[in-house]
Amino acid sequence: MPGNKLVRRRNEEATRQGWKCHWCKGPMTPVPPFEKGIVYLPTMVTLDHMFHKGDQRRKNPPSNGERRYVAACRLCNEERGKVHEKLMWMKKRTRLEARALQFGRQPLPLEPVS
After folding, report:
1. Number of domains, the chain
2. What does the pLDDT look like over 79-90, one tens digit per residue?
3. Is 41 helix (H, G, I), strand (E, B) or coil?
4. Cα dihedral sign for 110, 112, 113, 114?
5. Residue 10, class by beta-carbon neighbours within 10 Å (0-12 exposed, 13-18 middle, 19+ buried)?
6. CA 112/CA 93 separation, integer angstroms
7. Residue 41, domain CATH
8. Cα–Cα–Cα angle for 92, 94, 100, rounded to 5 degrees
């Protein structure tokens, strides 16, 4: 069955953490068996990266026992992803505005004008 290795890793990490989310310390639920049309609970256990995509610690395996993944509830994992995406977009927008001003131009609006 596909996904068994990932499910096992999620369960092992959750067991190591006492089935408590790393971020909110709330209780987590195991991954249910796959069924077509299933709705996953916000408390379902997921594996979450400790570091964002640009962080060097994510690319190089840790040598000091530092963990790259933690068990987190689905809700916390998704929220962390949204926050990181928004921060990256703001950073990109700031770079684009600075570049436009460098050449004496007004930055283009990035949102549709009403």
Report:
1. 1
2. 888 887 777 777
3. coil
4. negative
5. buried
6. 15
7. 3.40.1800
8. 105
